[in-house]
Design the sequence.
């Protein structure tokens, strides 16, 4: 099928590349000309394992192109994905201006051929009908002579198809989704989407080919939009829950990693997303939980559980600071080394990363902050972030350790488990490891000469 994906961030680019790999003919549109030029040269503007290889092979096969020309994209696509950002406004509400601009652009360039417009972006409940109206308004003001407006107005339908991929495993998640959600009232549009995803549904590109077909959940528009918010809000709340349990474990001398294992084996609870740590971040959980709270408030409901999940997370994101103060007392003049900066491993994404809160507070308290991140290296695009201006970025873990009073593991990159901690201890001023993700083997760290502290457990209780 002919596909157009508008917006080539983590979701749009991965969706476009994977659909092209599945055999569809894909045009990706972005209004950032620099990004488009980079992608045209076969390079992905984001770090996502496996993405560059798939992108280059589909480009070579002639099934994947990049452009800033929305008109060309709209004319090409039988299915038009809207995958632009929906960042938070200061009120917590979702900023839908980019979705609005794209919907207007689509309406201005419709040709009269049947097209399905797909809301892939995470958008407030009610956005499906809102997008439809914007497209209709754009048609009404379209300066067209060759197709009459009534024909254009009948030529498209809107479907909600929320995305559940995780950054850092986006390609894997796209080929191995737990489910596909399609919201809409038009059977023709839903059937078009099922045809588009048929190879995925049959697990043709999955590592789990022996499993039954991927479930497709067909709903009305509003329910599909709500599924996306409810899924992220549930996962964020689950993490806040285990973090709260961890904080109680710290006080009573229990081990949250054992508790998580013990409760996670109950199939009603499940073992995923029970990793206690210094809080959830990233471009989605914080903004999506805030947006759901905002929506509830708009309809006269205060959503106490979601508010509590956010509050627990705000506290958790500064727990490392509290623990450093317990161990080092005065932080002024101390040097703190951060292992990892991004909100999770295998990504270069710093959006709403807990590291940024920690850096801000450490600097405010007069500490010197060093950091080592495998992707956010000195000179990299991500390192230009102004919030890192006062951070001394190291190129190796050894360089990071030099002169530090404590190391804080902020991001659970797998390679941090096997660093030469004994060698690092030898070049530090004081030997403290605060494992903010409970990702290290505590005994090995202690053997390397460190005092070790995790979140919800420690070795010397
Ligand atoms: P992003 O910020 O990484 O990318 C958005 C892209 O859209 C940018 O490249 C930008 O240049 C482009 N853009 C903006 N306005 C445009 C316009 N008018 N025309 C063409 N291109 C335009 O965003 P993202 O992280 O990919 O998220 C996109 C949406 O998907 C959001 O609603 C987000 O909540 C949702 N989502 C994200 C993830 C994730 O892991 N990042 C997962 C699921 C859902
Ligand atoms: C999350 C969801 O997992 C995706 O399904 C969803 O599509 C996406 O948001 C989105 O809507 O954008 P992502 O933000 O990429 O994906 O990352 P996660 O793996 O969910 O981690 C989010 C945060 O929670 C990270 O800061 C991570 O460190 C933290 N986390 C995760 C924990 O603290 N404990 C856990 O057990 C799991």
Sequence:
């Amino acid at each position: 099928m002919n596909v157009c994906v508008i917006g080539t961030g983590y979701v749009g680019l991965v969706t476009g590349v994977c659909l092209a790999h599945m055999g569809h003919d894909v045009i990706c549109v972005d209004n950032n000309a620099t990004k488009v030029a980079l992608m045209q040269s076969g390079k992905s503007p984001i770090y996502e394992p496996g993405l560059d290889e798939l992108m280059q092979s589909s480009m070579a096969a002639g099934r994947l192109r990049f452009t800033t020309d929305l008109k060309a994209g709209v004319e090409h696509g039988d299915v038009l994905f809207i995958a632009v950002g929906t960042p938070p406004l200061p009120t917590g509400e979702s900023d839908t201006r980019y979705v609005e601009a794209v919907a207007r652009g689509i309406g201005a360039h419709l040709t009269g051929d049947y097209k399905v417009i797909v809301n892939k972006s995470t958008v407030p409940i009610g956005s499906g009908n809102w997008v439809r109206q914007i497209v209709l308004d754009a048609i009404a003001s379209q300066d067209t002579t060759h197709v009459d407006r009534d024909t254009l107005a009948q030529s498209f339908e809107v479907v909600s198809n929320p995305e559940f991929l995780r950054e850092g495993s986006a390609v894997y998640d796209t080929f191995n989704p737990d489910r596909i959600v399609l919201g809409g009232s038009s059977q023709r549009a839903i059937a078009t989407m099922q045809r588009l995803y048929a190879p995925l549904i049959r697990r043709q590109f999955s590592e789990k080919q022996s499993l039954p077909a991927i479930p497709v959940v067909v709903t009305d528009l509003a329910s599909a939009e709500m599924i996306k918010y409810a899924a992220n809000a549930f996962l964020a709340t689950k993490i806040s829950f285990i973090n709260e349990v961890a904080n109680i474990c710290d006080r009573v001398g229990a081990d949250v990693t054992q508790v998580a294992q013990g409760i996670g084996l109950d199939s009603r609870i499940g073992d995923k997303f029970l990793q206690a740590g210094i809080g959830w971040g990233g471009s989605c959980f914080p903004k999506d939980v805030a947006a759901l709270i905002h929506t509830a408030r708009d309809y006269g409901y205060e959503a106490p559980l979601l508010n509590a999940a956010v509050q627990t997370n705000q506290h958790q994101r500064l727990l490392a600071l509290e623990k450093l103060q317990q161990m080092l007392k005065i932080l002024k003049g101390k040097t703190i080394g951060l292992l990892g900066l991004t909100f999770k491993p295998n990504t270069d994404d710093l959006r709403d990363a807990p590291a940024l809160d920690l850096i801000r507070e450490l600097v405010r308290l007069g500490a010197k902050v060093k950091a080592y991140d495998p992707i956010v290296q000195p000179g990299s695009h991500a390192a230009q972030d102004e919030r890192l201006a006062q951070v001394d970025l190291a190129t190796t873990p050894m360089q990071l350790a030099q002169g530090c009073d404590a190391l804080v593991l902020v991001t659970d990159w797998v390679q941090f488990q096997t660093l030469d901690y004994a060698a690092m201890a030898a070049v530090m001023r004081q030997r403290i490891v605060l494992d903010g993700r409970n990702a290290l083997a505590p005994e090995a760290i202690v053997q390397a000469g460190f005092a070790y502290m995790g979140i919800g457990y420690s070795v010397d209780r």
Observations:
- Residues 122, 163-167, 232, 235, 239, 273-275, 277, 280-282, 284-285, 343-344 surround uridine-5'-diphosphate-glucuronic acid (ligand 2) (CB under 6 Å).
- The longest strand covers residues 2-6.
- The chain has a mean pLDDT of 96.
- The chain has three domains: 2-218, 228-315, 318-453.
